[in-house]
Amino acid sequence: MKRWIVVISVVAGIVGALVALPVPQVAAQGNAAEWTCVQVGPGPVQNVRSGPGLAYAVLTTQQPGQRFVADLSRGVHADGYTWVPVRLKAGMPGWTVMYGLEPCPAAPPTAAAPTMQLSGIRSVTMPPSLVTEIVAETQRGGIVPGRDAVDLRHEVQGINVEGHLIYEQFMHFLDMLDAATPVGTGPYTYHYAAPTLAQPSPREQTFVFGAKNSAYCVVGARAATLDINFEWGQYVTFAAGLMGHSVKASALAALDEDDALTYATGSHVHVYVDDFDGTIGTNEYCARRGNIAINTQRQYERCMGSIYPTGTYDAPYWDISGVLTIEQDEISAGWVDALIAAGTKKLLRIEITNGETGIDERSLTMDIPALIRVDNLFTDVDGLVMVDLAFQAIEEGDWTDAGAGEVDGYFSASLVNNTEEAL
């Protein structure tokens, strides 16, 4: 049974900008961008008056939960209240007090039509997102099993996508960490970096996966985790843990599969280990296998008024870690001995490249200033002595501009291919 996964961009639903009409008694001109969707919160009804004050006539009343737009930037203080201009759905302008208003719940993202079929996907785990619970008998006042089911929330958890790392398509997964704009005219370079001062802006995408008539999609997908695994003589693989808005029934699209794809393999992987105050990418070591794990520590933003999450945030930093198995030679044995006595800081570069240049270049380069420790000191592999090194990214000193002495970050990645992202 053939299965495939499709990635598409999300077209978010937004509230259209409204143009203010003249309001009787008090001018309410302003920029359309200042109008915001609001709703009446729980409590009493909200009077809408012809002007900002109790002396103005009541035009209508709005019940709790009713929505309209208001310009919160042009409040007028009168009679002990702050009054803001509003526009009702019927087109009626007026004024109401700001107290009692609350933001409208975020509109759910809308899935666009599929535009691309991904290759090399090996497995997908996609549980439903809707969390429904049965009210227990101790909370119902009876002794029979509970029969009251309540839909509590949508929570996208446990969704995992595993596959081969393909240079021409991997930016879609990296963009779910933090979106990048391609640089160049071919080949194109995508630059990524772990956040240090500001929250990242992951590109929300929709994944559709299924078999024949059974298909489902993750709407508003973002990456919570991303692991990359590599080993001599094997494909380079990845595993992405997704979170997002919801999981919904969907349909597969008849899309052609791109046949100009380059799969990363173990023969493409180069591992460099350099002194912390040295130049990254100088000393290459014989590596047998390894992995890098990126955990964004991404959390949901949740607001009452909707069973859907309103967004995500990363708190407080990305956790970058991994393990490298390298051959122990005269140089590596020296700093391995130092690792036994105390933790050692090193500059790591993991470069995955097909070795070509120009428009034929395909590469993924990851730079990490890291604290390294020895996990396994001595392993005999086919007559070679190998050592397992665990690493964890640290933000200390300067690692991109030697001698400057300033903090530049703790993880960066550059992806090069000849595909300009069209999503």
Task: Write out key terms for the chains shown.
423 residues; mainly beta; 18-stranded antiparallel sheet; 6-stranded antiparallel sheet; 3 helices; elongated; disordered N terminus
Question: Could you explain the architecture of this structure?
Answer:
The protein is mainly beta and 423 residues long. Helix content is 5%, strand content 46%. The strands form five sheets. It has an 18-stranded antiparallel β-sheet that branches. Strands 2, 5, 6, 7, 8 and 9 form a six-stranded antiparallel β-sheet that branches. A hairpin with an 8-residue loop joins strand 3 and strand 4. The chain starts with a strand and ends in a 6-residue tail after the last strand. The N terminus is likely disordered.
SSE layout and pairings?
Layout: E1 4-11, E2 35-40, E3 46-49, E4 58-62, E5 67-71, E6 76-78, E7 81-87, E8 93-97, E9 101-103, E10 110-111, E11 117-118, E12 121-125, E13 130-134, H1 137-140, E14 149-154, E15 159-164, H2 171-175, E16 188-193, E17 205-211, E18 214-231, E19 237-243, E20 246-249, E21 269-275, E22 284-285, E23 287-295, E24 298-301, E25 311-314, E26 319-327, H3 330-341, E27 344-353, E28 363-381, E29 384-393, E30 412-417
Antiparallel strand pairs: 1-10, 1-11, 1-17, 2-5, 2-9, 3-4, 5-7, 6-7, 7-8, 12-15, 13-14, 15-19, 16-30, 17-18, 18-19, 18-20, 18-23, 21-22, 21-27, 23-26, 24-25, 26-29, 27-28, 28-29, 28-30
